[in-house]
Amino acid sequence: MKQKIISFGGQNRAGPAKKVRTNAAAGSLKRRRRRRTGRQTLHYLLILLVAMAVLTILSFTVFFKIEKIEVVGNTKYADQQLIAQSGISIGDNLFRISQKNIKKALMEKFPYVEDVKLKRSFPPKLTIQITQEIPLGAVNTQTGYVVIGCSGKVLETGVHTLPENITVVNGMYLSLPEVGHWLGETVETGDLSYSPEVVAEIEAYRKQESDSQKSKKTDKVELEKEWRAKSANTEEEYFKMLTYLVDAVEETGFGKITLADFSDRLNIRIVYDNRILVELGSEADLPYKLRFVQKLIKDKLPEDYKGRLDASTASSSGQVWELACDISDELEKMKPQWQNETPEQTEINPEEKPPNTESASSKPENPDLAVAPQSEPQSSSAASSKTASSSSQEEVSSSENSFAQPDDLAVIPGSGSSNSDDSSSKPAPE
C-alpha cells in the first residue's frame, strides 16, 4: 500500500519566487500611481497658470481702470495742473503707473513740491499725496527776493511781494539764484556768482598770470573746480545760519522779525518790529539769546522803545547792553549798495535826484552816527540834542544794571548776575 509522503520542501522552494513576483507587481502599481498623480498635478498647475495669466491680462486691460484722481496736500498750484503734468488720466490702469516717474515729473515742474506719494484704493481711485516745501526765508537781491525752502531749494526768484511771516535776509551769498538750485550744491558748469573769498583768489591768480605770462589749461580747470566747490561751501554755511536763526525763532516764539542781516557772519543782526536792532553775535546759543531779548522787550522796555540791543555775549555774561536811538541810519547802512541806487533809476524824472539822496549816501561815511545816542521822538530841536544825549547815556547805565538782576532773569535758565556790579567797565554799545 502506497503511502503519501507529505513534504514541505517544494512549497518552501516556491515561496520566495512568488513573493518576488508579488513585490514587483506592487512596485509597478505604485509607479503607475505616482505617474498618474504627477500628470494630474502638472495638469492642475497648467490650469492654474493659465487662469493667472488670464486674470493678469484682464486686470491690466479690463479691470482696475482708474475712475477718479484726487490730489491732497496741495495749496500752491491748481490740482488739474499737477494731474496733467503727472501724465495720469481716467481709464489708466491703477497698477501700471510709476510713483518714481510721477514724482520726478512733478518736482521738476513745480518747485514747491517736496515729495509725492501715490495711494491706490477701491473702487479704483488714485490719490496723489503732495508734501509742499515750506519757505525758510527771502533773500534780498538786485532782481527781487529769492525765496528759499527749508530743504535748501530755491523756490522763487524775482519776487517783489512777499507773504507774511517770512524772514527777509540781507547780505546772504547765493551762487546761483535760479529756481530749482539747491544751496550748497556745486554748480559744475555754466556761470555763477563766486563768493567774495573766491573773487579775491581769482583776482590774485589773474594778476600772477599776467605777470608771468604763463598759463596752463589743466591748472585753470582744476582751479575752477576748486573755486566752484569753495563757493558752494560758503553758500551752504549761509544756509545753515539762516536755518539756525529760523529754528531758534520758532522755538522761542520770537515774532515780529522784519529783517535779518548776515553781512557779518560772526554777528547776526535782526530788526524787531522795525524799531529795535538786535545784535546776536554768532549762531551759538541763539535760542537763549532770543529768550533773553524777548523778556527784556516785554518786561523792561516801553512799548514804543526804539534803539539797539547788544545780546552777542548774553549767554556768557548774562547781560544785554542797550542804546536808545533812532535806527533809521543803521537800516540805511544795512541796505545793499544797489538798493540805495534804485531811486536814481526811476522813470519819473531820471535827471532829478531825490530830495535825500545826497544826505543818505553820505550817512554811512560818518561812523559817529551809528553810536551817537539820539533824542527821544518828541524832542525835535537841535539845541536840546546834547541834553538828550546825556540822558540817553544815563538810561543806558541804569538799564544795564536792571537787566543784570537775577530776579528779573529768573525765567531764563543759566542767566548769571556776576557782572551786575561792574557796569562801569562794560563796553560801549556800539
Total number of beta strands: 12
Cα radius of gyration in angstroms: 40 Å
- Quote the average pLDDT: 76
Name the helicity range.
40-55%
The topology string of helices and strands comes to: HEHHEEEEEEHHEEEHEHEHHHH
Count of discrete alpha- or pi-helical segments spanning 4 or more residues: 11
The secondary-structure class comes to alpha/beta
> Which strand-content bin applies to the residues?
15-25%
Unreliable sequence segments: 342-430
Shape: elongated
**Could you give the order of strands across the largest sheet?**
6-5-4-7-8-9-10-11-12
Roughly how many Å apart are the termini? 154 Å
The major pleated sheet works out as: 9 strands, mixed
Overview of the structural elements:
Helices cover 42% and strands 16% of the residues. The protein has 430 residues and is an alpha/beta fold. A hairpin with a 6-residue loop joins strand 8 and strand 9 (268-272).
